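Predict the 3D structure for this chain.
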Amino acid sequence: MIEPRPQRILLVDDDANLLVVLAEQLHDDGYEVSTARDGQEALRRLEAGWPDLILLDLMMPRVDGLAVAREIKAAADLPIIVLSAIDTADSKAHLLDEVAEDYVAKPYNYPELRARIQRVLRRLGDRIPRQSLVLGPNLTIDLHRRAATVGGTEVKLTPTESRLLHALAGHLGEVVPTETLLARGWTETEGADTSYVWVSIRRLRQKIEVDPDNPVHLLTVRGVGYRLVSTRDDA
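Done. Predicted structure below.
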């Protein structure tokens, strides 16, 4: 029986001590770890192969973490957990919406960081198709490219929108409670409440529905949650 390969993590931080300590902790938990001291080194490492997850510091010399994250996301939808000493609600919300799957403030607590890593990697196993998901004549979703094609035009999805669609596509045609979407879309964001889901669903409809005011794919089940449905005859 072939043993499954260890999940690969790229750790990017200009703090040499943190690199050594955190790499050892991750290795002890069974992860295959590579490290980079700055953004340029991180991008070079990515040329040799993609990891399953990136732990990325924001404040680095030469190429800062946000620029690295944007470049990575432009090439592939790799999950990123930000490690940063900047611990403000606005910074977290912005990063979670634009490039990050999660945000952990320094100094980190390793058991908490490990739990968040496990949660992000577990989400990658959601039962969604690796290929494009054709939901109707005017909508195709490619969650692994973080994009949708609506009426022949491609639109990009933000990480938050992608996380919500992951949860909905994993239960296609079924009702997903608002509380579940909140937990899946936002991880420990300060002040997160169900209004985050309402606003993001409204924005998502603006992107994926031909007529957002009369949606046919992203439906509200009042008082419960939302359903993603297909209009294909063979669905």
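The longest helix spans residues 194-208.
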